[in-house]
Amino acid sequence: MTDMKTTPAPISADLQAQAHDWLLRLQTGPVTAADAEAFRRWRAQDPGHALAFAQARRLWAALAPALQASAAPAEAPAANAGVPLSASAAALPVRQRPRRFNPGRRAFLGGAAAAAAVGWVAVQSPLGLWPALDALGADYRTATGERRDISIGSVAVAMAARTTMRRPADGSAGIVVTEGEAQFALPASAATGFVIGVDGARLMPAPGARVNVRCVGGDTRITCLAGRAELVRGTRTVVLQPSWQARLTADRIASVAPVPTDGIDAWRRGWLVFDDQPLQDVVDEINRYRTGRIVLTGSALPARRVQARIPLARIDTFIDLVRDAYGAKVVSMPGGVVLLS
């Protein structure tokens, strides 16, 4: 008699998110008897629920060493080896807060507690594997890997991945970019008065203008691609012409200078273009377009400098590129998580 083996059905992204939500909920807050009963009912609804939860536990346990290494002070980066594709030892964003651990819950979650102990708060998903709570209240939002075209009045808006925007609180014409990247194209016949808010500044494109607004991880850049646009921050006003970019800091317009625009516009054409950028920055950008997460470990690899063109349609070719160029070790885990060391 021949043994028959069946391959389990893949776990959907929605079910993965539910499992991670339960894991985080049971770990980070007081667990009542009602919570425990609701969790048991959820697990019993379908065999896939138990499988998804077990996978979530394995994933968090496997990520614990990488998360702990990221939270520790980084070593001095190794000197550049001079290879064209190359990283600063930037740690993953870890936010810490005082927390209470219940030994019973810790034992119940097993290895997952070790990863949670690094300091991820409930409103932030571990490694960005699902949207943060504040993103869910946006008027316009794109998910990881999603690009979306919308219209706000007569203004054509192209949203890059992981972008959130909201309408102005005072009901005026315009939009506020809270995170991510977007392009705004105004028709030549557009009325004046459309205002783009970003990081405390006001951007007013002229009719016929096209501008790219990027606000990712505290790095805010505004680039005029066509026409002209007026940027106001505090008492300073600058007028951006085509190919000119303004960079903002926490309280001012830090710089205004001409820049090459091919790389800035590349995501609209299905590419990510990097020109002598740290590998950590490259990975952070790729993670906005790739399901799961790429995690760099160690200090030497993140400090390499990169010059590359990555097609969004085949974004995992980047992993092969890093492996082949640097001999990096690749460890693949559930949920699309890849460790490079």
Structural commentary:
This protein is about 25% helix and about 30% strand. The chain is globular and about 60 Å long. The protein has 3 domains: about 15-135, no CATH class; about 140-260, Jelly Rolls (Sandwich); about 265-340, Phage tail protein beta-alpha-beta fold (3-Layer(bab) Sandwich), CATH 3.55.50. The longest helix is centred in the first third of the chain and has 25 residues, at about 45-70. With about 350 residues, it is an alpha+beta fold. The N and C termini lie far apart (about 45 Å).
Give me some keywords for this one.
341 residues, Jelly Rolls, alpha+beta, 13-stranded mixed beta sheet, 29% strand, Phage tail protein beta-alpha-beta fold, 3 domains, single chain, disordered N terminus, 26% helix
Q: Identify low-pLDDT runs.
A: 1-7, 70-124
Shape, please?
globular
| Run of helices and strands | HHHHHEEEEEEEEEEEEEHEHEEHEE
* Beginning-to-end CA distance, first to last residue: 45 Å
The beta-strand count equals 18
Concise synopsis of the structure shown:
Helices cover 26% and strands 29% of the residues.
List the topology elements.
Elements: H1 13-28, H2 33-45, H3 47-71, H4 103-109, H5 112-116, E1 140-141, E2 148-152, E3 155-159, E4 164-166, E5 174-185, E6 195-198, E7 201-205, E8 210-216, E9 219-226, E10 229-233, E11 236-240, E12 244-248, E13 253-258, H6 262-265, E14 271-278, H7 279-287, E15 293-296, E16 305-311, H8 317-326, E17 330-333, E18 337-340
Parallel strand pairs: 5-6, 15-18
Antiparallel strand pairs: 1-4, 2-3, 3-5, 4-5, 5-8, 6-7, 7-10, 8-9, 9-12, 10-11, 12-13, 14-16, 17-18
Helix pairs in contact: 1-3, 2-3
